[in-house]
UniProtKB/TrEMBL annotation:
This is Enterochelin esterase. It comes from the Bacteria.
Length: 245
């Protein structure tokens, strides 16, 4: 097929009002699959760093190609924008905006999407996706709201010690399904909290998750902590959780 067909996409801009977020609302972009029909119902992928997933991750183009060429079941993508200046405060479990953000996500954002779009309202059809701290907050959302979420795509998750302590205190994560990748060249990545070996952070987190009964797909690949690596991994991540029809 010509590449042009993958660029003919429906991406809507939406704004969800919020009582929890200090700014009172959050901008979203919503990808509707080819042939979207309100009489049907669809899985939905919720992406942290929504703007980056669409612009740098090219997730809408990839989804269109997978649906049209590889027979993947059509699905929606909801990209949740973030203000980079407060990203760590929202995405890190000890961040000042974290509690408000995850409450907003579970109790305001998800109902907003499910009222407006024809998406399946079952945890196995709600997939959370994120890179770095976006992977972190996605996992913590699933742990905090197991009745809503149990499938998480984590690309180079920033699982700092505070995250590992929280996971270690969880009682039972046997309903959780994780797709995790990390780049082997991420072994000394400089963050706003210091320099971390992301490979070791992810290995340690996998061990904790498995100990708690979670189902984990985990791969280490050549790659750096950047979208040049993650963009290449988006197709396999989607194929892991969304079925071929």
């Amino acid at each position: 097929m010509s590449n042009d067909i993958y660029l003919k996409r429906t991406i809507l801009k939406e704004t969800v009002q919020s009582r929890r977020l200090p700014e009172g609302s959050r901008n979203l972009r919503v990808f509707l699959p080819p042939g979207y029909n309100e009489l049907l119902s669809y899985p939905v992928v919720y992406c942290q760093d929504g703007e980056d997933f669409f612009n740098f991750g090219r997730i809408a183009t990839t989804a269109t190609r997978l649906i049209l060429d590889e027979g993947l079941e059509p699905f929606l993508i909801v990209g949740v924008d973030v203000d980079k200046s407060v990203r760590s405060e929202e995405y890190t479990p000890d961040g000042s905006r974290y509690a408000d953000y995850i409450t907003f996500f579970a109790e305001e954002l998800v109902p907003f999407i499910e009222e407006r779009f024809s998406v399946r309202q079952d945890p196995q059809y709600r997939i959370l996706a994120g890179d770095s701290l976006g992977g972190t907050v996605s996992l913590h959302l699933a742990v905090s709201y197991p009745g809503l979420f149990n499938r998480v795509i984590s690309m180079s998750g920033a699982f700092y010690p505070v995250s590992q302590r929280i996971l270690a205190q969880a009682s039972d994560l046997s309903g959780l399904h994780m797709y995790m990748i990390v780049g082997l060249q991420e072994n000394a990545f400089e963050t706003d909290r210091g320099v971390f070996d992301f490979v070791q952070l992810n290995r340690d987190t996998v061990a904790i998750l498995k100990q708690k009964g979670a189902s984990v797909f985990y791969e280490e690949k050549d790659g750096k902590h950047q979208w040049g690596f993650w963009q290449q991994e988006v197709p396999q991540a989607l194929l892991h959780f969304i079925e071929v029809e």
